[in-house]
Structures are given as structure tokens and as C-alpha cells.
Amino acid sequence: MTIEEPRVRHPEKVNRPDNPIQRKPDWLRVKAPTSREYAETRDLMRGLKLHTVCEEAACPNIGECWKKKHATFMILGAICTRACAFCNVATGKPLNLDPHEPEKVAEAVGNLNLEHVVITSVDRDDLPDGGADHFARTILNIRKTAPATTIEILTPDFMRKPGAVEHVAKARPDVFNHNLETVPRLYPSIRPGARYFTSLALLQRVKEVDPTIFTKSGIMVGLGETKEEVGQVMDDLRAADVDFLTIGQYLAPTPKHAPVDRFVTPDEFESYATLARGKGFLMVSSSPLTRSSYHAGDDFRKLRAAREAKLAGTRPAAE
């Protein structure tokens, strides 16, 4: 009998030289997860054979979020067809889709009694629709199982998948998120399989299909971008009528990933937040530990209130 060697998580990065891992400043240090709720959430995901981006992407906020039983489900399997330089999700040839995954996600949402759920996925360039129908089915199943739960999706770019964006948007998620990740100058080294203007066009197309859907996008800083470039990304997103912007610190998952250029200070993050609000975003989350789905439920309530206040010509209530 032959013993199968363990699968390499990032085969495209194995032969790269190691980058130095810098010591994190105090504002980026978090405690290891130990709560009972964390263990219960983990066991539920294992029992239903579901994946979460919280684990796959090594999110630093997993302890805080899972203690509150907030989890971001990752559908379409756990192996991505792309190899972004910043991402810890495994890459390679994906396995076949689990046809019952949309129902399992809906079951987990009901078991956790979630008010707001975030659904993301790996890139599936191997599928004719990029996984769009799987997203739509997941949304529809959650609506049946947990009709009071608001739904946020974080999708891939569906590059060269005609009709995919429209199909997902017509399933009417409450929030449609797609991250630009970084400034266009850094795409060849950080996000080589993607195209900046393809991602922008996706966000704009969602609003064309259904203007009532909130759109959201996020970037990482600390990769070598300039403040002027970040400002231009903000302008591009506002031109696409994006409602919500997240900005967080890039952290290298392993020495084989893109190195951290620098740690952006909390004051700089606040400066970015002020700049973004001035450009007209309904909602901005900008801090070292900000991630796409961090505090997503609370942020959704604020986002909805901000739109209602804007339509009424008033300011949202102070917190």
C-alpha cells in the first residue's frame, strides 16, 4: 500500500524565497481563541462539513467573531483556482461541488440563529458560471430557512463568465461585496489572476441590475501603496456607486506570501476613514484589524440607517 503524501497548500509558492515575518505592533496583537462559543461554532462547521474563510484565510478576528457565533461561510469548496500573493486559501485543482452545500449552509445559519450572515467563496474559474448558481441557490435556501436573516455575499470577480453577476444579483442579497484588494499598480504582483477594471465593472453592474442592493468593497494597506493611490481607488469606487468601503492592514500568512511593506498606524487609518466619508461613502470601516466581514451585522444596520437618513435628508443618529 502506498502512503499518500499530504497535499501542499500553496504549490505555486513552495519554491519562493522566504520573506521575513515582521514583529506585529501592539495594536495588531490578538488573543488565541479559547471560548466555549468558539468551540461550538467550530464543531457545528465540522459536523456539517462546511468551510469558513475565518479558518481558511487565518483571520486574526476569529476568536472574537466565533465567540459571538459570527462566521463567514466559504462555499464552492476549499481549493481556489487562483494564486493571489496575499491569500492563505489553498490553491490547486478543486474537487467537485457538493450539490447539497446550499442547504447545509442554510441549516447552519438556522442553528446559529444568525441575524446577518456573510457568504464568500474560492474562485472557481473551472466552472462555466464561476459558481454563480451555487451562490444564488445558497441565498434562496437561507431565505427559506431563516427569512429574517439578512444576507451579505462576498464573491469572486466572475471573469469571463457572462451572465454570472446578473444571476447572483437577481437572487437579491442584501449586500453584494467584491473586494478590489489593492491599488491597480500592485495587481501584477499581488492579484495577478484578476483585473482591476473587471472588478470595478462587477460592482457597477450590480447597481444596474438592482439599485436597492447595497454594494461593498475593501482594500488592504501596507503592501506598498501610496495615499494618493488609495484616494484614487476611493474615487473609482464612488464612480461605480459603491456604498461601503473597508480598509484593513495586510498581514502575511506565511513567509512565502507577499511581504508586509509597513504597518499602517491607527491614526493613518482614521485619516483614510475621514477621506472616504468626504468622498460620499454611506459607510466606512477603516482600522488595522478591519476585514470584509468583521462586525458585518452591526455595520449592516448602520449602513441601512445611513441610507434611510440620506433619503430623508437628515443625518444618521449618533451612536
TrEMBL record:
It catalyses: [[Fe-S] cluster scaffold protein carrying a second [4Fe-4S](2+) cluster] + N(6)-octanoyl-L-lysyl-[protein] + 2 oxidized [2Fe-2S]-[ferredoxin] + 2 S-adenosyl-L-methionine + 4 H(+) = [[Fe-S] cluster scaffold protein] + N(6)-[(R)-dihydrolipoyl]-L-lysyl-[protein] + 4 Fe(3+) + 2 hydrogen sulfide + 2 5'-deoxyadenosine + 2 L-methionine + 2 reduced [2Fe-2S]-[ferredoxin]. It holds the Pfam family LIAS_N. The keyword Cytoplasm applies. Residues 1-22 are annotated as: Disordered. CDD domains: Radical_SAM. One of its GO terms (molecular function) is 4 iron, 4 sulfur cluster binding. GO terms for cellular component: cytoplasm. It is found in: Cytoplasm. Residues 66-282 form the Radical SAM core domain. Binds 2 [4Fe-4S] clusters per subunit. One cluster is coordinated with 3 cysteines and an exchangeable S-adenosyl-L-methionine. Its cofactor is [4Fe-4S] cluster. Its main location: cytoplasm. [4Fe-4S] cluster 2 binds at C80, C84, C87. Its EC number is 2.8.1.8. It comes from the Bacteria. The keyword Acyltransferase does not apply. SMART domains: Elp3 (SM00729). One of its GO terms (biological process) is protein lipoylation. InterPro entries: Aldolase_TIM, Elp3/MiaA/NifB-like_rSAM, LIAS_N, Lipoyl_synth, rSAM, rSAM_sf. Pathway: Protein modification; protein lipoylation via endogenous pathway; protein N(6)-(lipoyl)lysine from octanoyl-[acyl-carrier-protein]: step 2/2. [4Fe-4S] cluster 1 binds at C54, C59, C65, S293. Belongs to the radical SAM superfamily. Lipoyl synthase family. NCBIfam families: lipA, PRK05481.1, PRK12928.1. This is Lipoyl synthase. It comes from Niveispirillum lacus. The gene is lipA.
